Amino acid sequence: MEDAVILYPSPAIGHLISMVELGKLILTHSPSLSIMILVTPPPYNAGSTSPYINHVSATTSSITFHHLPAVSLPPNNSPHHETLAFELLRLNNPNVHQAITSISKTSTVRALIMDFFCYPGLSVAADFNLPAYFFFTSAACSLAAFLYAPVMHRTFTKSFKDLNTNLDIPGLPPMPSADMPKPLLDRNDKAYEAFLNSSTHTTKSAGIIVNTFESLEPRAIKAISAGLCVPDEELTPPLYCIGPLVAANNQAGSDDGSSNECLTWLDLQPSRSVVFLCFGSMGLFSAEQLTEIAVGLERSGQRFLWVVRSPPSEDQSKRFSPPEPDLDVLLPKGFLDRTKARGLVVKLWAPQVAVLNHASVGGFVTHCGWNSVLEALCAGVPMVAWPLYAEQRLNRVVMVDEMNLALPMKDSKDGFVTADEVEKRVSELMDSQEGKSVRMQVSKMKAAAEAAMSEGGSSRVALSKLVESWTRG
Q1: pLDDT averaged over every residue in the chain
Q2: Does the predicted model carry a pTM greater than 0.70?
Q3: Nearest-CA neighbor of 342 among 419, 273, 439?
């Protein structure tokens, strides 16, 4: 029987892509392994993952996808999509058990690697006596805060949203309490409870795999490895920093029409002259905010490539998959005509990795999703950090104050950003001394990332240790 490793991602496309890249990386070390990926139907509509899965299946024969049955969810009134994901994955255990039973008939399963959202799967791994690892798809800095959450829960009686203080988290710069991950802001929310549970379960695993590299986050990695982020009675599992894992292309979006349009237009622009604005698969703005972005971009005088999506739908079932935007209605009158000589607006999607690696792109306004941050870093593109959801506000603090990879987009308490701020930050990134400093640091970290992933680099060494940990076992 062949040896196999089972990967169990949460349903979100960004988490699935990271898990697939982890599978590909494991195969570079152990090509004889089979990688089985469990696919859970998502609890919300955030666009189809089928084109991406079909592409991987067609190009990497050692990776196979096992589609699990849909799970019926009870009513839920939490405002956070993460709560739905946690509830789905809790109810998913019988399907995971059945899948591993089936796979075990033809393969010797060596390990189960789960997204941290999938922590209920620990008990399934125990049923099969499998070593279970968690794959943390965000930064080590986020992991430090995540592991330290139970300590803070005992320390404070108020919710983070009401604390109005800086938090002292091992390995992190001073963290404003309001910048903690969105689902953790209200301690009375079900999402908060689920994240706390996930944190305490993570320490019971055989190891934690993180999509980062040592020279990018030395302080956070050192704090976690030294056991400073978990309570005294808990042991911190071994940490494996195996990144940066970045998809070579983006097959998760639309057809090639917008892809070709973007890249053809970029071919006509001067080197490093274009600011790229793109906000992830769930990054949506109100009509009012889209107007402010347009006005700010026009005033800045900079060249830009902007991916625009429709505002969030009132229909909760279509919250993350709004209709194709009507640009003439959403954007200021005459904006497209006035800026057509130096700007391109595309609807819904762009091939982000290809765009970031294009010679004409000189800056990136990002929602601070960790995949996007690593993609920009590996392309050597400096950033403006504009967080929208999940742990992205924490990422912004770290990207600006700790890593110097980005300038901060400053927003009001409700997250609104003015046209003046858009104009200022975009211009600053492209034309100021501060922008130059960030550009130099990103260039330095790009080289460090390449070194980490090269033969004998820190991430390759960590990968070897990871594979040895389950082959020994």
Answers
A1: 93
A2: yes
A3: 273
Exposed, middle or buried by CB within 10 Å (0-12, 13-18, 19+), for 394? buried
**Helix, coil or strand: residue 88:** helix
Q: At what angle do helices 218-225 and 140-155 cross, to 10 degrees?
A: 50
Residues in the chain: 473
Sorting pLDDT into bands at 50, 70 and 90, what band is 472? Answer: confident
Q: Is 171 left (phi over 0), alpha (psi -120 to 50) or beta?
A: left
Q: Which residues pair with 67 in a beta bridge?
A: 39
351-377 as b/e: b if 16+ CB within 10 A: bbbbbbbbebbbbbbbbbbbbbbbbbb
Tell me the β-bridge partners of 366: 278, 385
State the DSSP H helix or E strand holding residue 112, giving kind and residue range, or none if neither. Answer: strand 107-115
Tens digits of residue pLDDT in 75-115 = 876 667 788 889 999 999 999 999 999 999 999 999 999 99
For residues 250 and 55, is the Cβ–Cβ distance under 8 A? no
Question: Of all helices (H) and strands (E), which one includes residue 63?
Answer: strand 63-67
Give per-residue pLDDT as tens, 229-240. Answer: 998 778 999 999
Dist. CA 188–CA 226, nearest whole Å = 31
362: part of which helix (H) or strand (E)? strand 361-366
Residues 6+ apart with CB under 8 A from 2: 32, 33, 34, 106, 107, 108
For residue 320, the model assigns a pLDDT of 62
